[in-house]
Amino acid sequence: MPASLSFSVATPGGPRTARVVHERRGAGRPLVLLHGIGHHWQAWEPVLDILAVDRDVIAVDLPGFGASDALPEGIPYDLDGVIPVLDALFEALGVKRPDVAGNSLGGLIALELGRLGLVRSVTALSPARFWTEAERRYAFGVLAAMRAGARALPPPMVAWLARGAAGRAALTGAIYARPARRSPDAVVAETRAMREAVGFGATLAAGSSGLFTHDIPDVPVTIAWGSRDRVLPRRQGVRAKRVIPGARLVRLPGCGHVPMNDDPALVARVILDGSR
Questions:
Q1: Which residues, listed in sequence order, are joined to residue 177 by a DSSP beta bridge?
Q2: Residue 276 pLDDT > 90, yes or no?
Q3: DSSP code of residue 218
Q4: How far apart are CA 91 and CA 20, in angstroms?
Q5: β-pairing, 14-25 with 3-11?
Q6: SS3 165
Q7: What is the mean pLDDT of residues 136-153?
Q8: CA-wise closest residue to 225 among 179, 259, 175, 275
Q9: Has residue 252 got a pLDDT over 90?
Q10: What's the pLDDT score for residue 208?
Q11: What's the Cα-to-Cα distance from 238 to each of 102, 216, 235, 273, rounded to whole Å?
């Protein structure tokens, strides 16, 4: 069962309390998992038990998403705001320089944690901010449309759509290459997470400018990209490799933007290989 953890963070107005929900399984060296914008820790459910055979796996609801609280007042939803909160979370969890894997927004955060030397290794699945401006506008349009749909559809309609493969494709086909594999309950839950994500708008706005341009020479980095990513095209992985020349670039055949559900065994293997 997921747990709730409250801890102190610094804000311009003084210390405040942040509350983060997380799922923790397994034993071994700690591995923290960070989801994408509008999602929740359950995005990692298909790979959790595989990873937990060898690792102490901690899947986090990022602040402002899932069941976690919004960031405390005065902390922005950009990297400068979120990274210190996650560093404080690591301390509260009792993990020092964990391995970290992230998807999309979570992949970007993972790379920044690596750049700052706060983690032992980084695996970034389709990380953000390796786009052209046209690609960014397209991706933001897809995400905004998913958010608008999640907020417009009544929950009974979402539940009805999720019962059929075609409905699951309509609700989640932008992010999964094989949306029919997602369970109806999971689709209902992640549509609700998208609808209720209090940090969505501010996070999207914070990502509207700037690219990730830093090499990460001192931390092992793996960048993996789904061959059927419909949100961030796989050519962005080539750009990421140019920015981080020492990174291992891995192709995920047949996988979409959120690849954990499309091929759990492959994604788990990539994460474990990248964090040995």
A1: none
A2: no
A3: T
A4: 13
A5: antiparallel
A6: helix
A7: 97
A8: 259
A9: yes
A10: 86
A11: 18, 16, 5, 20
Position 146, amino acid? M
Q: What's the rounded Cα separation, in Å, for the pair 42 and 19?
A: 18
pLDDT in tens, 91-105: 999 999 999 999 999
Q: Quote the tokens at residue 261.
A: 């559900």
Two tokens, residue 110: 């993972």
Are 22 and 3 contacting, i.e. CB atoms less than 8 angstroms apart?
A: yes
Task: Return the structure tokens found at 85.
Answer: 């909160």
What's the rounded mean pLDDT across residues 244-254? 98
Give bridge partners of residue 15 from the DSSP assignment.
Answer: 10
Terminal-residue alpha carbon distance, the chain:
27
- Total number of residues shown for the chain: 276
Six-digit token string for 242: 């140019």
SS3 223: strand
Does the pLDDT of residue 178 top 90, yes or no?
A: yes
Which two three-digit tokens encode residue 28?
Answer: 């071994």
Tokens of 132: 């052209």
Q: What is the rounded distance in angstroms from the CA atom of residue 152 to the CA atom of residue 266?
A: 35
Of 111, 89, 83, 22, give the one whose Cα is nearest residue 58. 22
* Beta carbons of 110 and 103 less than 8 angstroms apart: no
The answer to whether the beta carbons of residues 191 and 158 sit under 8 Å apart is: yes
Locate the DSSP E strands across the chain.
3-11, 14-25, 29-34, 55-60, 99-103, 121-125, 221-226, 248-252
Is it the case that residue 192 has pLDDT exceeding 90? yes
The residue with tokens 């999207």 is 204
Q: Is 101 strand, coil or helix? A: strand
CA nearest 242: which of 223, 229, 227?
A: 223
Q: How far apart are CA 150 and CA 152, in angstroms?
A: 6
